[in-house]
Design a protein that fits this description.
Blueprint lengths: L2 H21 L3 H17 L3 H4 L3 H15 L5 H13 L7
Helix pairs in contact: 1-5, 2-5, 4-5
């Protein structure tokens, strides 16, 4: 068992949950980020492959940040993917 990965996973989930709570006031943003995460996972070939497919997110993040600003760079897109992977059903959000 890789304890570091477990700790990191718990922290990541907590950070995502913090983000969800912060976004609850803005359901449109929440819906948008969830769907961006879903589309990224689908584009990467599903949940199993999505964990390892950072190349696509880097490419999209570069293009989107040039067009729409820093809020759509790699880090944000990675979080939207994580958000979708933690909450694969929108109704649970």
């Amino acid at each position: 068992m890789n304890y570091y990965k477990e700790v990191e996973s718990l922290i990541k989930q907590n950070e995502i949950n913090k983000g969800v709570r912060a976004l609850q006031d803005n359901s449109e943003t929440l819906y948008t980020y969830w769907n961006i995460g879903r589309l990224i996972v689908e584009a990467q070939g599903g949940k199993k492959r999505a964990k390892y497919g950072d190349g696509l997110i880097k490419e999209w993040g570069h293009k989107l940040s040039l067009k729409y600003g820093k809020c759509y760079e790699f880090r944000t897109l990675s979080r939207t993917r994580s958000f979708y992977l933690v909450f694969p059903k929108m109704s649970t959000v």
